[in-house]
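Example record

The entry below shows one chain as it appears in the dataset: sequence first, then structure tokens.
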Amino acid sequence: MSATLLDVAAVRARYTALDRRLAFFDGPGGTQCPDEVIDAVAGYLRHDNANIGAPYETSRRTDALVARARERAASFMNCNPGEIAFGQSMTALNFLLTRTFARDLRSGDEVLVTRLDHDANVAPWLEIQHDIGIVVHFVDVTDDLALDYDDLETKLSDKTRVVAFPAAANSVGTAPDIRRIADLAHSVGALAWVDAVHYGPHGRIDVSAWDADVVLCSPYKFFGPHMGLAFGREEVLRSWRPYKVRPSADEPVGHRFELGTCQHELLAGFVAAVDYLDSLGWEAVSAYERELGARFLDGLPAGVTLHGLPTMEGRVPTFCFSVPGRSARSVAEHLAERDVAVWWGNYYALETIRRLSLDEHDGAVRAGIVHYNTAEEVDRLLAGLAEIV
């Protein structure tokens, strides 16, 4: 299958949000929603809004929606429906799950995180370090911002309980070898704890092939609504004592880690987002994104400093860069005046920004490509950068 099988004009026709000149390269902060996702959210609130567990029609429909959402999440992540938990956000779920796992941690236990991580997969472990005295180590990166596997292996020990890492870095786009890291974690009896938020719109999440123990992501990063989604290996989840209210059901096991009533209307939007992605096919999406990413890298003007891998190997099409002599904010504002939307700052990837010796507030410029972007939009981004340098 080739990128030519992705009909980008037909894709864009499914988005009212894209019917404007503004070129959205802000996907790493949240993608646009196709109309079918918006319609699903509104349709639930119009026709099915109810709480679960009652005998009347709308409650029965909501019960069916929750079950359907677990099935679609399991399909999306390649796991069992019972291993799924929904929540307010990835960050909220990760604080809850790490705090739950911390019941089994002791002072001196070690957790490895990386300098590629979003802080949502760092700060929860640092808080546990503060509370009970575990030791958090940072796995370094190479000069081109690939993960330093030698440093990872050096830091592993029989005290390591978790290796937490991103499936793709939200700052510079690096996509580490997930299975390799999971195998290294398991070699010392540690859990592989994966932040797949940024990977979500770019490729298939396959927790089985990854052999991961915990995987978290955010549907609003892959064309769905604002909510969080987590997978936990069943035997791992059953080994933890959850924080939950007493009457809440214990089955399916993932439900133990859902605090309160789920956002049912958002589950409807999530189901529609997964259906939307299935209608496109991951192979076509990834191939098309790879073409646009290469177009960006090939056309990057001299004088723009790219932070990260210089080719599309080992990365997703998210690019972090600076223009010497210009603040990241001023570059983003220059592009915004030309109807090109990019981010500037640290993107909550504090350790990456520190590793680059950049100002922690101003950071760098970030442009993220997803499958609804076009070659013309990439060229406009490059033209805007050329004006600056």
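Notes for this example: The longest strand covers residues 160-166. The mean pLDDT is 96.
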